[in-house]
Amino acid sequence: MTQQKIQNPETQVAKTPQMNERDFINDMLATEKYMTDSYSTALNEASNQQIYTDVLAIFNETQNCQRELYNVMFQKGWYGLEAEDQTKIQQTYQQFQGYSNQFPYGNNGMMQ
């Protein structure tokens, strides 16, 4: 079975040595992804509650910005998705559900 592509019509941009709209948005998206990764590390290592709270607020703003940029790229047809067969999704879910039974702390990740 072939996978169905989910994508909007692609907005055409000039193919020149200069950066175009797609290049700029793609660069901003990559930067936002890098920043959310870095803020996530900072959150894991924050030893002070106020710093944690401040970084968490910045992380959330950055994550939301990243999502908005992704949505713009999807709307312009610069990102596409492939629909997966429902049977394959169910098989993969069952496979990983079986793995979760092997976790030392149960399915919720907490010690019991």
Automatic annotation (TrEMBL):
Residues 1-19 have a biased composition (Polar residues). It comes from the Bacteria. Keywords: Capsid protein, Virion. Pfam families: Coat_F (PF07875). Residues 1-20 are annotated as: Disordered. This is Spore coat protein. It comes from Sutcliffiella horikoshii. The lineage of its organism: Bacteria, Bacillati, Bacillota, Bacilli, Bacillales.
